Amino acid sequence: MPQADIYLSLVVPTYNEDERLPQTLRRFQEYLSARSFSYEIVVVLDGPTDNTREALKSMTSEISHLRILDRKVNRGKGYTVKEGMLKAYGRVRLFADADNSTDISHFDKMHLLFEKGYDLVICSRDSKDAPDARQAVPQSLYKRLMGKTGNLFIQLLAVRGIWDTQCGFKAFRDYAAEEIFSQTVIDGWGFDIEVLALARALDYKIGIVPAQWINDPRSQFKLRAYVQVLWETVKVWHNLSRGKYKL
Questions:
Q1: Please, are residues 203 and 176 in contact by the beta-carbon 8 Å criterion?
Q2: Residues 107-133 pLDDT 10s
Q3: What angle do CA 127, 133, 135 make, to 5 degrees?
Q4: What pLDDT digit, counting tens, does each position of 141-168 carry?
Q5: H helix and E strand count, the chain
Q6: Which residues pair with 45 in a beta bridge?
Q7: What pLDDT score does 139 carry?
Q8: DSSP string of 173-185?
Q9: Hey, what domains does the chain have and what are their CATH numbers?
Q10: Cα 177 to Cα 190: distance, rounded to the nearest angstrom
Q11: What would the DSSP string read from start to end of 121-133?
């Protein structure tokens, strides 16, 4: 398929996902093959140390329009999403987690907002962002409390007015993806905050759709990651206040 003809690039940042990735890719293809628009699935390997490569290799003949970006060195989710977004070909570029905790069918609502002129559209698990949002299978209580407390800090410093910055399901028009991700410097979990802060600073129109989110207890996001996100929020605030980005 010619690169210029691709409507949707689905970018899947992947670390150690030998168990979950095959099922997720099958679900992605089930959804995308039933749509009228053209697409590609871009799996970006973040230096996995398990059997992810072998699991993925066994699926190359099963999954249509699959591209694999294989990096041997682990650099973090932020770096991995950036790599996929800048190497994608789609006119719309969506990144989604390898566990499909926010099901790919949420793109139906995103697609409608892109048709109304939005530059990027994000999913939120918080009803203060979108009334129908909910965690269908919620995180543990301590993770929810940490998330809510952390969000107040994130809003204070970097992204005011968005109550869920961390949902791993965000889509961008190609020009927005290229302008935003070409400037990001956060390689870790806090990259979502940097991306949204840059989108706001660049006056892009941000849409929010409600997520029906299902927690997977095997999540790679651990307690220490919350501390990392808060520290990276400070970095984003510092970069914005010191004019480190081209706005």
A1: no
A2: 999 999 999 999 999 999 999 999 988
A3: 105
A4: 556 666 677 889 999 999 999 999 999 9
A5: 8, 9
A6: 14, 70
A7: 55
A8: EHHHHHHHHTT--
A9: 3-241 (3.90.550.10)
A10: 17
A11: EEEES-TTTSTT-
